[in-house]
Each structure stands twice: as structure tokens, then as C-alpha cells.
Amino acid sequence: MGNAGPAAAAKKPESDLGPTMRFAVVRSSAPGCEPNCPEWISAEGTIEAGTPALLKRTLKSLKGRQLPIIVNSPGGNVDAALQLGRIIRKNKLDIAVGTTVFFGCEPQMKNCRDNDGRGAPYFGVAYDSGAMCNSACPLMFAGGIRRVVGEWAFLGVHQITTTYRREKLLYRTTYRVVNGKKKVIGTKLVSRKNAGSYKTYEMSKAVEKRLSAYLREMGIGEGVLVTMKNTPASDIHQLVPENMLRMNLVTSLDSLELFAAATTCRANPVPANCREIPADGNAKPAEMAAAETQAAQALAAPPKQAQEMRFVLVRGSNPLCNPDCPDWIAAEGTITAGTPDRLRAVLDTVGGRRLPVVINSPGGDIRGALAAGRLIRERGLDVAVGRTDFLDCDPGAAGCAAKDGFHTGLTVDAGAECDAACAVMIAGGGRRFVGADAHFLVHSMGMEEKVRAYLEEMAIGSGLFAAMQSAQYAKHRELSQDELAKFGLTTGRQSVDALTGATICRSSPKPDNCRALPSANAQAESPPKL
After folding, report:
1. Residue 52 and residue 78 in contact, taking contact as beta carbons nearer than 8 Å
2. What is the Cα–Cα distance from 449 to 99, expressed in whole angstroms?
3. Do strands 69-72 and 36-44 pair parallel, antiparallel, or not at all (unpaired)?
4. What is the DSSP letter of 475?
5. How far is CA 496 from the centre of its chain?
6. Does 155 score more than 60 pLDDT?
7. Comparing C-alpha atoms, which of 328, 321, 338, 357 is closest to residue 517?
8. Residue 248 backbone class (left: φ over 0; alpha: ψ -120 to 50; beta: rest)
């Protein structure tokens, strides 16, 4: 009988960086996208040895549908990241760095039925603000066909860490002496003991060769590997968009909105990750729904809540104000990327007059809201939440022409709303009013750092941003007049009447939006001209 105790070395990935990566197929719940909305695969968490199998299982459930992957990961197992990249490339999938905020059911919930009958298990919106793809994650990211990292997302690399774990193995060997020599009959492992571990931060030639071959296979420049080697494992080198484009790590300077924006499915042809769910709940793939969607858009106007924000010049029609009545700009509908340009076009038609903006909006595009708010502040305009009731005709109706460019109407705050991104647009006003009967609702949204900086720029208290972040997306929190005043969003407790009321033009000094019109018999009453 005898025993031997050689030390055994085993490679293992670095220590746990958080929850294991999970995959979930998500449908956009952004306002205005239904019935044809983009879908994507949300990939969040640490890459571990079993992660590639989870992705394969998710892709199998999609039965060949090609959905982009939106990933948020601190990194993890290098070998698994390489496998993930190859799976993504084999299936010709796009990828973006971002995080998904879920509405209703979330992946960690068990037996959730909140989304039953809606045609998808998970709904949410994707944001790039604060999302990351670090360490081993860029190797996974490299597998995408189209690869994008938004301005507010992070992609970072550093040196690979290899951990060697020593074990002391105790064997029992059975042998027989034959002609004076030992002949081994059998060997059995008796015990296994931890004998310590050590790490190395130097990339071996074999590993370097393997990573270099992989990146070439994916069409990625050598600069990525050079940056990895030159960055200590204790640090992280965040790559800037221009350098990523130069290295071909990203294929464009777009953000994840390329794949997951509310307007994504309005493109022609309709992207492969779009799926129409009619009112009866029976979903149609994008290629079958494209023609029908295009025809429907041509024949019928979208529902009111999905209409893009329009700007209409309005003159007060209350008999108490004639002949000196206030003018204003009615802003109603969903904020989009084109909203600032449409507002600028309207302002350019009024010759420098500072007309207040009366807003009624369910929210919409955050970038559009930021730009519109800055334009409002730049032009020195006041704002109020309110609805405009048109008395001559609806500006959207066929044959409805405005007299001298202005429609006639009245404002009311009852039933008016300012939701989500609308709060950002309102913050740009010089004077800002939200009446007691108007509804002001907020929830968390993307681009947190930009929104925070913008609110500080507009001298709005930090309480408003905190209130936004306290409410999950699509689970709105309604703010009271007291809260709005406390946060510094409103500059007074008046309603929209403070800007458009019938008697404001009698005040001194007269507001900029007042304009006296000649009476009908003014010409007859005027003195004769010689």
C-alpha cells in the first residue's frame, strides 16, 4: 500500500460579480408604439459558465425570430463570454448596451399574471443611462452584427485575471510485488483538500493568441486587445464612442433606441424585432404586419394619446376680453424627437412675440422634451398645464382654416395632464402654473444624469428628480400643488387663467400676449382722411 499527494492547479474565473446573467424576452411598453412594438432580449447580470446554455434556451423558444440583445453586465467568465459572442454571431443578432425597466411582471417574479392576455410575458422600456458592459462582457458584445453603445452607457476593458486554486489530493494505491518489482493494481482517490490559491494578472501568450484570433474572427480591431493588456485588473478603461468606432467595436454611434424606441416599428421596411398585437391579442410577425400597418396609418389617424404634439396659435374668444384678448400657443399630444423643431417653426411665425405655451401631454421622448424645454427658456416663454377648447373648428379637421393664422378658443385646466417627460418640458418655462384641477404625474425615466443636470440648470429643486425616481416606469405618481410648489416647479398657485384669462389684458403693464383688434365698425367711426 502507498500514497501520493501531488498539488493540482485549476483555472477558475474571478469571484462572483453579482447575480448570474438572466435572459428575458421583452416587449416595449413605451407610449404610442402599440399595436406594433419592438421586442428585444434583456440580458442582465454576471457571465458564468452556464450562461451560454441559458441563451441557447431563450433563442430556441423564439423559433428563429431575430431579436436584438440589450445587455447590462459587469463581466465574468471569459470562456463563457467567447461562447456567447459566437452564439450571437451565428444567429445574426444585433446587440446594444442598456438596461431594461420592467412594467408589470418581472423575471424574478413567480407565477405573475399581470400581463395575461396582453400577448407577451414581459413589458418594459430600455435605457442606456448608467448601463455597463465591462471586463469580459465586451467579448460577448463583439459577437453582434450591429453593435451600439449610447452616449450614457459604459463599455470598459481591463487585464484578464486568472485564479489558480491548489488542491492536495490523497490517493491509495494497491500494488503487487512480482519478481521483486512493484506492479500497480489500482489507484483510488481518498481525499481532496484545499491548499490555497493565487492570482495572476499577466496575459499568457496562449490566452493572448486565443483572444486575438477571436476578435479578428468578429472583425474587431487589435486596439481592443491592446487596451485590455495595458489596463490593470484593478482598474477599468472606459472606451469613448469615437475610439470604439475606430476599433470597429461599435458599428455606428447610435444608441439602443436604434432597436427599442417607440418609433422603431414605423420604419419601412419594418424591423425584424417588431411584432403587431391587434386588439384581439393574436400577434402577427413583422413581415406579415408591415403592409397592413402602413395601410392602417394611411387610412386612419392614430389614437389621441399617440398623436405627436402639435402647436396651434390661439386667440381668446371670451366675450369679456374683446377687443383686447390674449393669444397663446396650444401644445397638445405626445412629445417626439421632432417636437422642438415644430415649436421653433411656430415661434418663428409670430415675429418675436412672447406667447405662453399651454401644454396638455402624456409625455414621450425625453430628448425631445429636454430640447423643447431649453427652447422655451431661451425664448423667455411662460407655460401652464391646460387644455384648449377650439371654438371655430378643430385644427386637425379637413377644411379648418385659421383666420389671420390664429384659431379661437378657451383654456381650462380640468382634465388636462402633464405626464412623465412633459414635466421636463414644463421646467423650461419662465413662469410655470399647474392649476388645482390639472393632473401632474411623474415616473422614473432614462438619461438620469442629463435630466438631473437639466433640472439644476432650470433652478428646479432636487425634490422633483427624487419624486421621479421614486415611481417605477408606467406606475405614475401624481404630484399635488403643494409638492410642485415645494420642489420649485411651479412659480405660483394660479391656473392657466393667469396666462390666458379674459381679464389679464386689463392689467398694467399689459402682458406681451395681449393684442387689441379693431372693432367691426372701426373704419366707419374713424375721422375722414383729407
Report:
1. no
2. 15
3. parallel
4. S
5. 31
6. yes
7. 321
8. left
Q: Could you tell me which of 513, 339, 335 has the C-alpha nearest to residue 411?
A: 513
Distance in angstroms (rounded) separating the CA atoms of residues 188 and 176: 15
Cβ proximity of 140 and 147 under 8 Å: no
Question: Residue 101 corresponds to which cell in the numbers above?
Answer: 425597466
Q: Classify the C-alpha dihedral 456-458-462-467 as positive or negative.
A: negative
Decide which of 305 and 382 is more confident: 382
C-alpha cell at 84: 456567447
DSSP state of 308: B
Query: Comparing C-alpha atoms, which of 133, 126, 183 is closest to residue 153?
Result: 133
On whether the CB atoms of residues 84 and 49 are closer than 8 A, the answer is no
Q: Tell me, what amino acid is at 65?
A: R
User: Can you tell me the mean pLDDT for 474-490?
Assistant: 85
Q: What are phi and psi of 24, to 5 degrees?
A: -145, 135
Determine how many CB atoms are found less than 10 A away from the CB of residue 41: 23
CA proximity to 234, closest of 136, 135, 164 = 135
* Band of pLDDT at residue 522, cut at 50, 70 and 90: very low
- Please name which of 87, 12, 79 lies closest in space to residue 43, comparing C-alpha atoms: 87
CA distance 84 to 20: 14
Cross-strand bridge partners of residue 329: 313, 357
As a whole number of angstroms, the distance between CA 81 and CA 161 comes to 14
> What is the pLDDT confidence band of residue 263, given thresholds at 50, 70 and 90?
confident
- One-letter identity of residue 370: L
pLDDT at 92: 97
Region of 87 please: left (phi>0), alpha (psi -120 to 50) or beta. Answer: alpha
Q: Which residue has the cell 410577425?
A: 285
Round the average pLDDT of the chain to a whole number and report it: 83
DSSP at 307: S
What is the grid cell recorded at 96?
Answer: 446594444
| 466 or 274, which is more confident | 274
Buried b (16+ CB within 10 A) or exposed e, 237-249: bebebebbeebbb
Which of 241, 34, 267 is closest to 154 using CA atoms? 241
pLDDT surpassing 50 at residue 118: yes
CB 154 within 8 A of CB 134: yes
pLDDT at 390 > cutoff 70: yes
Element (H, E) at 205: helix 205-217
pTM of the entire predicted model: 0.52
Contact 194, 167 (CB under 8 A): yes
DSSP 8-state class, residue 140: H
| Cα–Cα distance measured from residue 75 to residue 139, given in angstroms and rounded to the nearest whole number | 9
In the predicted structure, residue 281 carries a pLDDT above the cut 60? no
